[in-house]
Amino acid sequence: MEKSIGFEKIRTAIFISGTGSNFKNLIKFSKRKKSPIKIILVISNNVAAKGLRYASKNKIKKKIFKFKNKKGDEKLILKYLNRNKIKLICLAGFMKILSKNFLRKYNGPILNIHPSLLPKYKGLNTHERVLRNKDKFSGCSVHFVNSKLDSGKIIKQKKVKILKNDTPKTLANRILKAEHVLYPQAINKIFTNH
Ligand code: GRF
């Protein structure tokens, strides 16, 4: 209980696989007085995920589950989440697909951020596909996770204009910046009235 601010923050777990810039950004967001979330732990399937360094710096517990035995690892994760009273999961660049069984057994919202304007461009290599199709806009989406890849209910989206000389890399960088604005906004949209 965060007595000083007068409301209980939502105990949150972040799942990452790589750089963790969204994780870093969510940590910053969680530290704001009015932020509805408190990040308790981070889970990664990749021991070398760069983002894990933000855990130690911020006194956030970290745990690696390599998903070699997906069923077994998911069972352990569920126990770990339960033990830590986790009420919200935010996937942030997590490259494993959680099973239907996991989604059924975990009883709290699971959010994901995806670098496209869903329902367009589900899955990988979104920026390459957007550029190949000569779209005028791309962007990012935060959505609830359901059993179909990148298909759960959309919470919030942010458009990013495609520039003439964009490459997948330049576009990815601009969209990542938009993601850092969007993820906190989407969390606020669900859990607060601002
Ligand atoms: C982001 O573009 C996110 O939308 C996608 O993976 C990337 C993760 O970036 N799912 P980071 O690890 O948060 O920097």
Backbone CA Rg? 17 Å
User: Percent of residues in beta strands?
Assistant: 15-25%
- Would you state the CATH class? Alpha Beta
Let me know the CATH homologous superfamily.
Formyl transferase, N-terminal domain
Spans of at least 5 consecutive residues whose pLDDT stays below 50 are: none
Termini Cα gap:
21 Å
Helix content: 25-40%
Q: What is the string of helix and strand elements?
A: EHEHEHEHEHEEH
CATH architecture: 3-Layer(aba) Sandwich
Task: Provide the list of bound ligands, each named once.
Answer: 5-O-phosphono-beta-D-ribofuranosylamine
Structural class: alpha/beta
Descriptive account of the structure:
It is a single chain. With 194 residues, the chain is an alpha/beta fold. The chain has a single domain, classed as 3-Layer(aba) Sandwich (Rossmann fold). The chain is built from 6 helices and 7 strands, in the order βαβαβαβαβαββα. A 7-stranded mixed sheet has the order 3-2-1-4-5-6-7, with helices on one face. α1 links the parallel β1 and β2. α1 packs parallel to α6. It is globular, with a radius of gyration of 17 Å. The mean pLDDT is 96. The protein binds 5-O-phosphono-beta-D-ribofuranosylamine. The site of 5-O-phosphono-beta-D-ribofuranosylamine has 14 residues, from α1, β5 and α6. The site of 5-O-phosphono-beta-D-ribofuranosylamine (GRF) has 14 residues, from α1, β5 and α6.
